[in-house]
Input
Amino acid sequence: MKENEKEQEIQMCRHSLSHVLAKAVKNLFGKENVKIAIGPAIDNGFYYDFDMESITQEKFADIEKEMKAIINKNEYFKRVEISKKEALKIFKDEPYKVELINNLPEEEILTCYYLGDDYVDLCCGPHVENTSKLQGYAYKINRISGAYWRNNENNKMLQRIYVYAFPDKKQLNEYIIKIEEALKRDHNKLGRELEYFTTVDYIGQGLPIILPKGSKTIQILQRFVEDEEEKRGYLLTKTPFMSKNDLFKISGHWDHYKDSMFVLGDENKDKEVFCLRPMTCPFQYQVYLNKPRSYKDLPMRLGETSTLFRNEASGECHGLIRLRQFTISEGHLMVRPDQLESEFKGCLNLGTFILKTLGLYEDVSFRFSKWDENNRKKYIGSKEQWEKVQNEMRKILIDLDVDFYEADGEAAFYGPKLDIQIKNVFGKEDTIITIQIDFQIAERFNMVYIDSDGSKKYPYIIHRTSLGCYERTLAYLIEKYAGALPLWISAEQVRVMNISDNSLDYANSIYDELSKEGIRAKLDARNEKIGYKIRESLSQKVPYIIIVGEGEKDQNTISIRGRNNENLSNVKLEDFIVRLKEEVSSHKN
Ligand SMILES: [Zn+2]
Ligand SMILES: [Zn+2]
Output
């Protein structure tokens, strides 16, 4: 069997199991008490949505047992074709099915499947013919979560039972171990426990509060990126967070991106309508447009640490990875055609330098994101223009020896992109850095330059990020290092603690000296047992602990405990400070 056929069969078995689950839940909780919605297969199993009394974890074993009983009866999945009218009769007590049926055209022939004689579900299949085919399958209820009917916040919240399902026990167990490992690194859990960030219901999804620890790390990253850009000839800009929608009409965002924007006001009622910016581009163009430009002014490299707003659906928001407001190392380069390749290379060098410094480079892949010719509405420009610029970009990527893959339909509306992709601990992929070639927008904004022969020309614009979104990068760093961030980006680098009151003054003097030397230290002078203080510091993943008691005080030394089990005593403070500074300046991971 071919790989994709095998995958299809697994998905069919998973989906078949979702009906077994629905039947089991009805058997256990009473047919009339359970209203069924839908139950698709997913990557690691399947889910089913129910409208019923709330199910607790204690019931999981009962439900799994009932599923087993159904499977062991070797029941048939019997396919029956029915008219819409018949369907409405069969499913009259199932309001969610009725809604689905009513949305179908009048003449539609529907299919329902009987699982045994006493259970029927509306579904187009396919399923296994008989539950005997599911005998070897290994499944385990993972969790229950709320899910709006049809993914719409205005609808009722249903209970979604997620189940892991794999062809055999070995694969299931391997998967569960992998997931448990991932959970330990999940930034959305660990990042909260370690006090990097939090969220507040009445502020909203996708709008995290970055706590002092996370804010410090982001500040360090931001300074690092801004300094690096300055070294590479970028000019800093500072532009507004919002604009009248007139700007976005010129840029094309109003026509091609409005659904993802926060719009303040209504064009039919208000004299002026404002939008929070989803991108910095059209603002930075104004810097270029501020005075006439000649070919000698190019390339012009503009950078800005920019806060952006995108109207993501609540359900799409995730931890620090998918947000409604985020801050990005945004930049735009206006370049002549003869400068395109070298400037593109400069952007790529900067991005890879930053990823390597952060230790994330080995985890990324390079996606050449192209347009989708069959979905022309999404893009501006002609087919010839797109093909020309995509060919140019492909040539640049090959020249630069980038190990890339191509993806249709992932381009920006104005041009193709090189997206540097990274996966989170659960394998979900997002973009961390992007470099885009835009051959169209300069004309829209009339961004001309006078070439050496006196003629007027439009520059290419490279849209790029050098680290991408700071919040998202923090998430990947937390996952990569399981919360133990490298010393140079750790908010707290050293925790000083005294063993007893007799060494408090000495601990204080150590703390003062570290602070004076620019080491980010904290003093734990609480009257607690030293073992307790050490454990707490280790659980918070503070890189180093300095422990001082009367012995250290008498000899004017310190003892050091590293979070990686390093244990040192009789160390001179000045020697340790030299070592810390070296570790920081070398950006050691
Ligand atoms: Zn089905
Ligand atoms: Zn841009």
